[in-house]
Model the fold of this input.
Amino acid sequence: MAARTFSVGVDVDHLKHYYRIHGHDDQSATGAAFAVGVPRFMELFEELGIPATFYCVSEDLQEPGVAARLREAVAAGHEIGNHSWHHRYDLTRLPSEERRAEVQRAREQLEEAAGAPVVGFRAPGYTTSPALLADVAATGHTYDTSVFPCVPYYSAKAAVMGLMALRGRRSQSILGPPAPLLAPRGPYPVDPARPYRRAATGLLEYPISVAGGLPMLGTAFTALGERGALAAVALAWRLLPHVTVEFHAVDLLALADDGLDPALATQPDLKTPVAKKRKIFKKSMGFLAERAEAIRLDALTASLAGD
Ligand SMILES: [Zn+2]
Done:
């Protein structure tokens, strides 16, 4: 493994999940995440020379153009990861057979559509459990990247869900136990019985990187602005041997630019113009690309296993 590495993942969450998470009716949700967000990220990654991973929800393969988009991403050197079959926020609470199917069917469907191996899993809403990790390991995956050890995110999520409950709206989001906050900060083999502890061998876990309390997330970069995001990424680069960055395909969409439904203004970063967000992402990811090797998590996992 090279001295310093970083990896970039993009969760391709359909817009309907943003309607649902904010308690809106999802009938006017369009397929813009795949149709517009993914190509914008692919263009950005091409400029920066970054091979990335797109974590996809396999039910979206029913929409026209999605399977072709996956093959296009693979041809451009990107990895396709598993983001489950239906993006159920209550995945860890489903009966075991249903939960297993959410992981297994998605992997099969995505592999078939992409024509490439799918070996990484990211849980919807960062909510994982020993049983879910056991499913991930048992269904042909070599790594998981669902642990998010971030206190500000945890308290912000709790606050938003509390506010929505006060207004009588129900979020589909689930607040997992705070145990992820105790997880190791770097890649580690997970102990299936205690997923936030390091084991000797096993499925590799890549927690989303957090440095100085700041998560390496597209929405956080947008909120921080160009200089703030650059400082956050520089700090992560100084503190962590491997930086795991997470974007969402909608991070490169905007209400005005893309004529999105104004109801989506409840997702605040959608109000920021695409050009501004792109500039922030290009600057901060460019910082990493100049100093470390951009590596896909499937490749990093293979190289760590071979060590
Ligand atoms: Zn998601």
Observations:
- Residues 5-306 form a domain with the TIM Barrel fold (CATH 3.20.20.370).
- The chain has one domain: 5-306.
